[in-house]
Write a structure and sequence with these properties.
Blueprint (H helix, E strand, L loop, with lengths): L1 H9 L5 E6 L3 H13 L2 E6 L2 H10 L4 E4 L8 H10 L7 E6 L4 H9 L4 E4 L4 H10 L4
């Protein structure tokens, strides 16, 4: 029995994957630094269509997504992802300049767990991630 306990103790925890979806390379870089400091492995996508394909191959634990992107917007991506019946439900946070109350409600109604306004810093993103249990 001690050998079985030892084997379990040595089994590494499954890495937490964060998908950062934004057409801005700079935003992806800033977000990557923040989530990697929280122990996530980061992956990136430049638009919602690319993000949806990545989610189908490996569903992330957390998704940070911009609203306004070419090819497929963040709102369309979140709606499509939440419409899938994979059984896995990642935490989703919109990171966007759309600060109107109606936009925030629309983002949450589409299936996002929270919403942070750009430009964001480490402290504000961390607070949102803690609030939804992703930090």
């Amino acid at each position: 029995m001690a050998a079985a306990q030892s084997a379990n103790a040595e089994t590494p925890a499954k890495p937490k994957l964060c998908l950062i979806v934004d057409d801005s390379r700079m935003i992806r870089k800033v977000a990557r630094r923040i989530v990697e400091s929280l122990g996530y492995t980061a992956a990136e996508a430049e638009n919602g269509e690319e993000a949806l394909a990545k989610c189908k191959s490996a569903m992330p634990t957390l998704i940070l997504v911009d609203w306004e992107m070419p090819v497929m917007s963040g709102i369309d991506f979140v709606t499509a992802l939440r419409g899938e019946s994979s059984g896995v439900r990642p935490k989703i946070v919109f990171c966007t300049t759309k600060a109107d109350t109606r936009d925030i409600h629309r983002g949450i109604e589409s299936g996002a767990d929270d919403y942070v306004i750009k430009p964001f810093d480490e402290k504000s993103l961390l607070a949102k991630l803690q609030r939804i249990g992703a930090a």
